[in-house]
Amino acid sequence: MTNERRVLVHPNRAALAASVAARFITTTVDILHEQGEVNVVLAGGSVAMEVLEAVNASAARDTIDWDLVTFWWGDERWVPKEHPDRNELQARTALLDHISVPAENIHPFAASDEGLDLEEAATSYAELLESRSIDGTQLPRFDITFLGVGPDGHVASLFPHLPGIREHDKSVLAVLNSPKPPLERLTLSRPALNTSRCIWMVLAGHDKASALGLALAGASRDEVPVAGIKGRRYTNFFVDQEAAAEVPENLTASTF
């Protein structure tokens, strides 16, 4: 068992998505054999959707007993339920609408047109998480957490130099001043993300290379939020060659 950061480099974006999808399927099956249920935290972004699409396209997709898988989200844009930018809608289109996961196992954040204000939505999600917690904690046992990484090093909706990355107590935050649209968002906090057994960060493209290099070189989490993210057992960066351009060779691998 290790919680060291590991970087697995893939030749291109398509190979990255296919590899992460295959690993997700086998890891989920293994965890189900071990403990009988799996909690997965989903990410937004184009690469994350390509991974979910690859899971859906896999011949091994239904080796997973989807009745035993519960889905959460790491963050969400504060937009209406059917808005095309909503992470939930994109994940449903890519995978969730195509598998036999029970509706009660899918836990999206509230949308802006569902009757709550942003702070109420954050409180509501925190209460839902706590209701599914174990051992008296605030959270379920997150097993696999997917995260993207922005060119500025942000993860979920935790951005550089904003108060959210420094939050210690809350599990869910209302973001009022996102530097990228929309201004308002909901996000899990850094401590909440770091309770995850496995954190899988999936990055592609030259524009991610600097943030990844800085995070692995020990940048502060205020400057580069991804530097403050670390799973309980595993923290894996799955990247293409372009995103790996500034990672020291001794930190990369072609397999693990």
Key terms for this structure?
6-phosphogluconolactonase activity, 3-stranded antiparallel sheet, 256 residues, alpha/beta
- Helices, by number, come to 6
Q: What's the number of extended β-strand segments?
A: 10
Shape summary: globular
User: Low-confidence segments, ≥5 residues, pLDDT <50?
Assistant: none
N to C succession of SSEs: EHEHEEHHEEEHEHEE
Specify the structural class.
alpha/beta
The proportion of residues forming helix, as a percent range, comes to 25-40%
The strand line-up of the biggest sheet is 3-2-5-8-9-1-10
Strand-residue proportion:
15-25%
Average pLDDT works out at 95
Q: How far is the first residue's CA from the last residue's CA?
A: 13 Å
Please summarize the sheet with the most strands.
7 strands, parallel
Instruction: Using the CA coordinates, give the radius of gyration.
Output: 17 Å
Describe this structure in a few short sentences.
This protein is α/β, with parallel strands linked by helices and 256 residues long.
